[in-house]
């Protein structure tokens, strides 16, 4: 088994006045030329679930109401996984290029979650026109924008 060294480039900040990604000062120059992109793919660490126990859970009991009774962890978006990596597409509200702070519309991360990387969302590489999904989740929204008004609480068993 191979190990990899990964370093955080910043942290998620969840505040009353919004959600932000605050970069470490040395990474601020990496923001150059992001202007014009409306969305980012944020790769972050489920740090609250990084322990030996959760890294060894490979199946889970029906996390979604209409899902199969037992699911492999790779068929879920659970933070409980062998490597607690997360990927979230986020809308950019503002980028402060001097302080290294990106204000975003929403991210499903906790305050102080480590950010490992950010990449611009580009439809030519990140969008799938007609994705296939199992029947149990085919009624879920078809876009990030539609998800804002979807009653997600009715979907989960937790």
From TrEMBL:
Question: What InterPro entries has UniProt attached to this entry?
Answer: TrmO-like_N, YaeB-like, YaeB-like_sf, YaeB_N_sf
User: PROSITE patterns under this entry?
Assistant: TSAA_2
- Whose protein is this, by species? Paenibacillus motobuensis
GO function terms (MF aspect): methyltransferase activity
- Where are the bilayer-spanning segments? none
What protein name is recorded for this chain?
Answer: SAM-dependent methyltransferase
In which family does this protein belong, per the annotation? Belongs to the tRNA methyltransferase O family.
Keyword Transferase listed = yes
Q: Any idea where the TsaA-like domain is?
A: 6-130
Arranged from A to Z, the UniProt key words for this protein are:
Methyltransferase, S-adenosyl-L-methionine, Transferase
Pfam families (alphabetical): TrmO_N
Asked whether the keyword Ribosomal protein is assigned, the reply is no
Which biological process, per GO, is one annotated for this protein? methylation
């Amino acid at each position: 088994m191979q190990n990899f060294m990964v370093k955080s480039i910043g942290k998620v900040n969840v505040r009353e006045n919004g959600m932000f990604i605050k970069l470490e000062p040395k990474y601020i120059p990496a923001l150059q030329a992001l202007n014009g992109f409306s969305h980012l793919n944020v790769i972050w660490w489920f740090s609250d679930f990084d322990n030996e126990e959760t890294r060894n859970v490979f199946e889970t009991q029906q996390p979604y109401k209409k899902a199969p009774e037992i699911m492999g962890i790779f068929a879920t978006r659970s933070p409980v996984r062998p490597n607690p990596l997360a990927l979230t597409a986020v809308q950019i509200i503002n980028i402060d290029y001097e302080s290294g702070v990106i204000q975003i519309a929403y991210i499903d991360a906790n305050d102080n979650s480590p950010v490992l990387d950010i990449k611009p969302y580009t439809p030519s590489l990140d969008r799938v026109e007609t994705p296939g999904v199992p029947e149990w989740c085919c009624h879920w929204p078809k876009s990030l924008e539609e998800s804002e008004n979807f009653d997600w609480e009715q979907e989960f068993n937790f």
